[in-house]
Structures are given as C-alpha cells and as structure tokens.
Amino acid sequence: MSSPSHPTERRAIIDGCLAMNRLGINQGSSGNLSIRVGEGFLVTPTSLPYDEMTPDDVVEMGFDGTYVGARRPSSEWRFHRDILRARPDVNVVLHTHAVHATALAVHGRGIPSFHYMVALAGGDSIRCAPYATFGTQDLSDHALAALDGRLACLLANHGMIVLGGSVKAALALAVEVETLARQYLLAQQLGEPVILPPDEIARVAEKMRRMKYGQPLDDRDAPEDTARPRG
Ligand code: 13P
Q1: What is the pLDDT of residues 73-95, one digit of tens each?
Q2: Which residues contact 64 (CB under 8 A, 6 or more apart)?
Q3: Can 200 be counted among the known catalytic residues?
Q4: I need a labelling partner for 149 at 20 to 30 A (CA). Which of 54, 99, 122, 199 fits?
Q5: Relative to the CA of 134, which ligand 1 atom is closest?
Q6: For residue 3, is pLDDT > 70?
Q7: What is the pLDDT of residues 36-56, one digit of tens each?
Q8: Best CA proximity match to 26, nearest among 44, 10, 42
Q9: How confident is the model at residue 205 (pLDDT cuts 50, 70, 90)?
Q10: Is residue 67 part of a domain?
C-alpha cells in the first residue's frame, strides 16, 4: 500500500490529541482535531483511542464531505468542515470535553470578561453555542455563529471548540479557556465577579496585538510596548 499523504500533519494530529489528554483538557476518545491541508483537511477518525491511532487512521476529507481512508471520520466532521471552509484565518479546529468548560456549558453559560485573558479568544466574551445533538448540522451551525469573530466557544451540554493557526496555538488557547472556566467557576462561589467593561477589553486586545502577547519572540526585535533587551 502506498504511504498516506501529508505525513507531517497526520503525525501532528496524533501528537495534538495525545497532548490534549495529557494536559488534562480532554479524556478518553472524546474530542477531535482537524488540520487544513491542500483543498480539504485531515481529521481524527471516530471513536478510536488516541494511544492506538496511527497515521493511516487519520482521515482525509474534502469540503464536499467525501473522505478517503479505512476509518470513518469523526462524528463532528461537519463542524470541522464548516469552520475551516468559513474561516480562512485558521488552520486547526480542536474540540474537547474539558471538565470546567463543560461544567459552565451544561448551564448554557459562556465566559464573560471577568478576566482580561478572555481577550485572547478574540472578543469580550467566550460565547456558549446552544445545544444540538452531537454530529448534526444544527450543532455545526450553532458553533459557527458562536465563533463569529472569535477563536473559541463553548458548546451547551457538550464541551468547547478552539481554533488556531497551528496545533500548538490551538492547544495553548484550549488550556487557557479551560483555566478561565475554572477561575470563573471558583470566583462565582463568592458571588458574581466584577466584569471588565468592553472598552477595557478593547484596550487589552490592542495591547496584546502590539506586544504579540502569548506568542514567543524569535528575535531580539521586541515589539512596541515591551521592555528592551540590554545591550
Ligand atoms: P468522535 O470520536 O466521533 O470524534 O466523537 C467525539 C466527540 O467528542 C463528539 O463530540
């Protein structure tokens, strides 16, 4: 049999899935991950434990919903397809059942701007998409709407979706969203926390953009508004 296409991306999918379980933001064979390739995308197969997954198991799909490979694609292939098709700004779609994000989502609650780091997801809140049965077009439509202008959303009674330019970026944001959900749940034990106003979140977002906040610098050319390296 000839070797499968996109070996680097197939490996990145498996490593990304193993990482999300190791990081404690997903469990078992819940969750799924896709990467844009060529005229379509690669996506995890349905219901296969990540520690058993080989590069051949990763499924290649077209935006027309057809697939090639021995395995069936994730039951959530529709939202992976619809998000990657609608959002040329992202290359990776990551879905997890992270415990604290899901605890909020089962109440239909998103994450408001109780903490400035909410701005990392692209707005002044992380919305919660309404419930729809897993794998349905309705769920995909709700998710796409909740992600409008954002890189993350919760899914009611289900979990979260995070978008990124790379698997690394998506994983980092997923950890951040799960941390925010945990902080928000804890903070609520003392009552409703202080919510930062939209103009402050806009200021934070602009500062994050200028500082390339959360992105490692690969040279000594520090962006505006950061301390300068000595010498
Ligand atoms: P799959 O194994 O089909 O990807 O389903 C996992 C899941 O989390 C469904 O939302």
Answers
A1: 999 999 999 999 999 999 999 99
A2: none
A3: no
A4: 99
A5: 10
A6: yes
A7: 999 999 999 999 999 999 999
A8: 44
A9: very high
A10: yes
Ligand 1 centroid, distance to 45 Cα (angstroms): 9
Distance 229 CA to ligand 1 centre (A): 46
Average pLDDT of the chain, as a whole number:
94
Tokens of 157: 């009674």
Tell whether 85 is covered by a domain: yes
Could you tell me the CATH number of the domain that includes residue 127?
3.40.225.10
Residue 117 has pLDDT above 80, yes or no: yes
Q: For residue 225, what pLDDT is reported?
A: 63
Full domain range(s) for residue 146 = 7-211
* Contact (Cβ atoms closer than 8 angstroms) between residue 82 and residue 144: yes
* CB proximity list for 178: less than 8 A, separation 6 or greater: 25, 96, 98, 99, 100, 101, 160
Does any domain span residue 59? yes
| 32 CB near ligand 1 (under 6 Å) | yes
Q: Which atom of ligand 1 is nearest to the CA of 29?
A: 2
Domain total for the chain?
A: 1
Q: Does 1 reside within a domain?
A: no
Ligand 1 contact, 57 CB (< 6 A): no
From 9, 76, 176, 178, the catalytic residue = 76
Atom number, ligand 1, closest to the C-alpha of residue 158: 10
Q: d(Cα 74, Cα 56) in Å, to the nearest integer?
A: 14
Q: How far is the CA of 42 from the centre of ligand 1 (A)?
A: 15
